[in-house]
Amino acid sequence: MKQTVVIREMEACHMDCSYTLDLIHHEVKYCQGCWNCWLKTPGRCVYKDLDTFYNRYVAADEVVILAKVVKGFVSANMKSLFDRMIPLFLPYVDVSTGESRHIPRYPKYPDIKFYYEGSFITDEGKQVFEAYIYRTFDQFASKQITVKPIESI
Amino acid sequence: METIILNGSPRGNNGNSEIFIRQFLKGMRTHCDVKYMNKENPEELASHVKKYDTIIMVLPLYIHSMPGMVMRFIEHLEPSAVHSKQAIGFILQCGFTESSQCKYVERYFSCLAKELNRTYLGTVIKGEAAGVYMLPKFMTKKLFTLLNQLGEMYDQTHTFDRRVMEKLQQPYVLTGFTLKFMQFTTKLGANKIMWHRFLKKNDAFHKKLDQPFA
């Protein structure tokens, strides 16, 4: 059966999923930039609050993200989650595609469906936001990435 | 004209952003207040900065943009009054060699300035900066001179000097010799030497490829 993980910043209708990370009630600790997850305890963050999430994320076929737009960007809580995903990758950088990319630690990563709620003051703001989300999950080695406003689903 | 410099590194005064701030200030004659986001309450800090004409954020790149801690502060920033002539600028340093990795957040900062009703001074970008704190003096000389010049020009003109910015952001993309050289060293594994040195020192070398959550 397809394994789906949901990450949400808003109340959502029921979805069949193997795990939900509820960012309304869980405040993700900030990445401290200590590099312990690369150099002291490879693959493990000094904080343990996301251990179950890491486990389910790398096992998932698909991750559905329901995000709120804050000041034209992802929220601080969502951004901290992105920052804290660096233990899932190696410190080494590969340049075979012509730009620097971190090498994956795990054999596969889930496809991403990123749906956002909120508005932008300019069309450019919307483009910048979507381009950023694509780039982030491209760096996170996801193959299929969808980024859409929530009202389009 | 009063400027506040905000250190947006989760490592606070113990990281590369702090080195960038010290070198920028070295070029300035006018006094500048400096605050550390990792030591402040984000809401109170957002209120405190209202009285300054200009905010300069100095920060590291985390996952193609600002650290979560900096976004928390941005969440609390309120737009300036119309015609206030307040400004905002950013100095961003990243570990990747090519500074184009910063283009997503650079475009965002430009949009944010609009949303905050502040004049956008620009984003100064420096790649290959993760190791600045451990480099010997002769290897940081060029970078520090450019940061001194940036501070000096800012003090005189209240702008980021485009020529200095241009120099700091080289290489923007990996091309030609730089790319060939990096592809060659990657093939040899030379790019791993520094990481392996740290891993060995921490007695973690044998665990370097661990997959604890598989």
Automatic annotation (TrEMBL), chain A:
InterPro entries: Flavoprotein-like_sf, ISF_SsuE-like. The keyword Acyltransferase does not apply. The keyword Metal-binding does not apply. Keywords: Flavoprotein, FMN. SUPFAM superfamilies: Flavoproteins. Coiled coil: none annotated. This is Flavodoxin family protein.
Automatic annotation (TrEMBL), chain B:
It comes from the Bacteria. Pfam families: FMN_red. InterPro entries: Flavoprotein-like_sf, FMN_Rdtase-like_dom. Residues 31-101 form the NADPH-dependent FMN reductase-like domain. Transmembrane segments: none annotated. GO terms for molecular function: oxidoreductase activity. This is NAD(P)H-dependent oxidoreductase.
